[in-house]
Write a structure and sequence with these properties.
By secondary structure, the protein is an all-alpha fold. The protein is built from 5 helices and no strands. The radius of gyration is 22 Å and the shape is elongated. The chain starts with 10 loop residues before the first helix and ends in a 6-residue tail after the last helix. The mean pLDDT is 86.
Length: 174
């Protein structure tokens, strides 16, 4: 099995990729454990089952409870949380634009009646893909800047990768 990190020379990028891989492995393991526990009925007789959760008190807040209560009661959120929410929305806009561009390319290929139109469609897609790659680099710069403001590492936003985003759409190396 080849090491997927050999192609990358930037130590920070390698570390990010390893952290992302480990996080995905951990999530998978936790989900399997939860699924098994659920199948065995471990969650069937929990106290308060069927009743709404009381989320008004932050039990982990400790001496910051008053501050959190003031924030919540005044419909205010911490700036980094608001920026993270905006970034996640911006990422979804990018993904929607990528999907729209791919569908447009597929439509052009379907309606192309000769090899010239096929070539033009492919060239158009290559140009669009390059434009999207530039846009993605800028988006990833914003993600990096945002992550520097987030005090909890597990809440950091993972950068996007064009190949992975295309794979999510079912696109191979085209």
């Amino acid at each position: 099995m080849t090491d997927p990190f050999k192609k990358v020379s930037d130590k920070n990028e390698i570390e990010r990729m390893r952290r992302e891989s480990a996080e995905q492995d951990l999530r998978g393991a936790v989900e399997r454990i939860i699924d098994e526990a659920q199948k065995k009925g471990f969650f069937d007789n929990l106290p308060g089952k069927g009743k709404p959760l009381n989320l008004s008190k932050n039990r982990q807040a400790g001496d910051q409870a008053l501050a959190f209560e003031l924030l919540q009661n005044n419909d205010y959120t911490l700036p980094w949380i608001a920026k993270r929410t905006e970034m996640l929305a911006e990422m979804e806009v990018f993904r929607a634009e990528l999907a729209r561009s791919w569908r447009s390319y597929q439509d052009r290929l379907q309606t192309a009646s000769d090899s010239l139109q096929h070539r033009q469609a492919r060239e158009s897609w290559q140009g669009e893909r390059e434009r999207l790659a530039v846009e993605l680099r800028e988006l990833n710069k914003k993600i990096t800047a945002l992550n520097l403001t987030i005090p909890v590492e597990r809440l950091e936003v993972l950068k996007l990768n064009l190949q992975k985003e295309l794979a999510r759409l079912g696109v191979g190396d085209r």
